[in-house]
Amino acid sequence: MLFLSYLILAGGLLFSAALLTLGLKLLRADRMEGKKSALRAPSVLDAILGRSRMTEDWIPDGRVKGGMVYNHKENRLEISGRLSTDSLDRVFRQNTY
Questions:
Q1: Separation between Cα atoms, residue 93 and residue 66, nearest integer Å
Q2: Which of the given ranges, 6-15, 44-53, 56-65, 74-83, has the highest pLDDT on average?
Q3: Which of 96, 87, 95 lies closest to 38, judged by CA?
Q4: Are residues 29 and 93 in contact, defined by beta-carbon separation less than 8 angstroms?
Q5: Coil/strand/helix, residue 8
Q6: Is residue 72 within a helix (H) or strand (E), and if so which, with residue range?
Q7: Could you report the per-residue pLDDT of 7-54, keeping only the tens digit for each?
Q8: Are 52 and 42 in contact (CB under 8 A)?
Q9: What is the largest CA-CA distance in the chain?
Q10: Cα dihedral sign for 87, 56, 51, 80?
Q11: What burial letters (b/e) apply to 21-33, b meaning 16+ CB within 10 Å?
């Protein structure tokens, strides 16, 4: 029984540390870069599922990785776009070398 309480305490500490890390990253995020990336992916679900817009007035955008996927339900090829890791690094101000 004592082991279970320690296990629950350790899990709670790990969860709170993850939330604290996420909160600090969001506080330090570059808001302008975030808004620029948000224009390409209107919702978080669109960014995850690869439904980001790749072009603006027929001009390709470097923030979005484009590609094609095969939709098995519809039996057709579809254009897929997701935010690039470089654009996410710019939002969260990570150094890229």
A1: 23
A2: 6-15
A3: 87
A4: yes
A5: helix
A6: none
A7: 999 999 999 999 999 888 888 888 888 787 777 777 778 777 777 776
A8: no
A9: 63
A10: negative
A11: eeeeeeeeeeeeb
